[in-house]
Design a protein that fits this description.
Number of domains: 2
Number of helices: 11
Number of strands: 7
Distance between the termini: 7 Å
Structural class: mainly alpha
Shape: globular
CATH class of the largest domain: Mainly Alpha
Order of helices and strands: HHHHHHHHHHEEEEEEEH
CATH topology of the largest domain: Hypothetical protein af1432
Oligomer: single chain
Largest sheet: 3 strands, antiparallel
Length: about 280
């Protein structure tokens, strides 16, 4: 049973990672949302099983974006209304992708409702307040914060305090009052510094200085390894001066194949094993 669950979760995580990797500006988003959500759950949920499920749902929350075309998903500017309506479908598409999965009931609620709002102005069902399932209320805060503090083609990220002030201003309307306030408190206490601006533990996000998107660097990369920008194909070499990750341009270009998304297999394996360890096996 354990091996089967690990295999099924690995498949979902790889799919989510590949969907995310289609947009080089969002590298690390699923991992960060999962970690933020786990932090929030640890402060309010007693069950290790529920905490693990919230963490899983955080990683998979955008799974349904597999159904969004590149022309919409990768649009380098604000979406027009018709395109936004297409994007909103990702929450229901993600639920359908879980059909038959043993964790579908819990994960499906989180994925379907992570864009609901306490004031009822969210989607897809316009739920209000505590009608919104607990994991979705948690992930909604985590997802919005990471979106605000990440680079997009049309804007730079908000500074930490500016993003926290947006959450504070939206408590009880855009964001769940309990989890939004808790997130702000955790952030101001420094509890998210190892997540903010990272794509894995100890792996700060590296942006291409030439064109802006994230250059994918894994924990398994060693000094001297080559990595590439998936947009401009610029080549970089990995190093760790004074123990800190850095990438340096070599002046060379990679082959066209560097544009192909690549999931971080070691990260996914680590997350799956950690989560499954806290789930009951029947």
């Amino acid at each position: 049973m354990r091996a089967r669950l690990e295999q099924e979760l690995s498949g979902l995580f790889i799919t989510a990672a590949m969907v995310e990797a289609r947009d080089p500006y969002t590298v690390g988003h699923a991992w960060r949302v999962s970690r933020y959500a786990r932090l929030l759950a640890e402060g309010s949920v007693q069950s290790e099983e529920t905490i693990a499920l919230v963490s899983i749902a955080g990683f998979l929350h955008d799974l349904g974006k597999i159904g969004i075309s590149d022309s919409v998903l990768l649009r380098p500017e604000h979406l027009i209304e018709s395109e936004y309506e297409v994007v909103k479908e990702h929450s229901t598409v993600g639920v359908r992708m879980l059909d038959g999965h043993p964790l579908a009931a819990f994960l499906g609620e989180a994925i379907r409702h992570h864009h609901e709002r306490p004031d009822g102005r969210g989607y897809p069902d316009g739920l209000k307040g505590l009608q919104i399932p607990l994991p979705a209320r948690i992930i909604g805060v985590a997802d919005a914060f990471d979106a605000m503090t990440s680079t997009r083609p049309w804007r730079r990220p908000l500074a930490l305090e500016a993003a926290l002030q947006v959450i504070e201003a939206g408590l009880g309307s855009e964001f769940d009052a309990e989890f939004g306030a808790r997130f702000v408190s955790l952030a101001r206490a420094g509890a998210i510094s190892h997540i903010l601006g990272h794509s894995d533990l100890g792996v700060p996000v590296q942006e291409c200085p030439a064109c802006g998107p994230v250059v994918n660097v894994f924990r398994t990369h060693r000094d001297g390894d080559k990595v590439y920008c998936r947009l401009c194909a610029n080549e970089f070499v990995v190093s760790h001066p004074q123990g800190k990750l850095a990438i340096t341009a070599t002046g060379s270009k990679g082959r066209p194949s560097v544009a192909v998304p690549e999931p971080d297999a070691e990260l996914i394996s680590r997350l799956v094993l950690d989560c499954v360890a806290h789930l009951p096996l029947q």
